[in-house]
Amino acid sequence: QSVLTQPPSASETPGQRVTISCSGSSSNIRSNYVYWYQQVPGMAPKLLIYENSQRHSGVPDRFSGSKSGTSASLAISGLRSEDEADYYCSAWDNRLNAWVFGEGTKLTVL
Amino acid sequence: QVQLVQSGADVQKPGASVRVSCKASGYTFTGHYIHWVRQAPGQRLEWIGRIYPNSGSANFAQKFQGRVTMTRDTSINTAYLILNGLNSDDTAVYFCARERHLVGFDYWGQGTLVTVSS
What we know:
Shape of chain B: globular
Order of helices and strands of chain A: EEEEEEEEEE
Largest sheet of chain A: 7 strands, mixed
Largest sheet of chain B: 7 strands, mixed
Strand content of chain B: over 45%
Low-confidence stretches of chain A: none
Number of helices of chain A: 0
Low-confidence stretches of chain B: none
Number of strands of chain A: 10
Oligomer: heterodimer
Distance between the termini of chain A: 30 Å
Order of helices and strands of chain B: EEEEEEEEEEE
Structural class of chain A: mainly beta
Helix content of chain A: under 10%
């Protein structure tokens, strides 16, 4: 079982807003920063968000991150077809002494 | 520009070992952790461990302790992942990634497919 829980899929139409959730625990999300990565199938992941809500260099401001307690979320507004990808949350886990990832959420732009 | 270039796909038999390389360029190799992350077909990302190239010190996820080694050659800016005792569950794409402190894994290699098959 995964330490970080994400919905397996999400979908929305172009131009709309979608939110992807990430649920963890006191040993990971509550205690440490959350990171978000975007992965197009067959490619390496790309860093989107660091320190819960900071956009990595070159990431459009349509992407935003937030954290509260043991949960985090990634919001994407003004959806575009190129946003179709898998999205992973990640955090350091103090109990496991390891970086942990969510199961990933497959975003479909209808 | 920062680049991480990994070795090519590999096929190994069960019980064998595999070595994957990750050549860094465009930054000071000894100044950043290199992490190894793998992804089995259709599965989530899984952290294997990290090495600090300056000292060679490495930490591993508990799941891999005892059968993983991480080394580096600072003369050629290359990090290596060695995984022993391979089984079919080790079939995956293996990625190296650079860590920038507090920013996360900001650059990734292109991935190396390791297939374990008899």
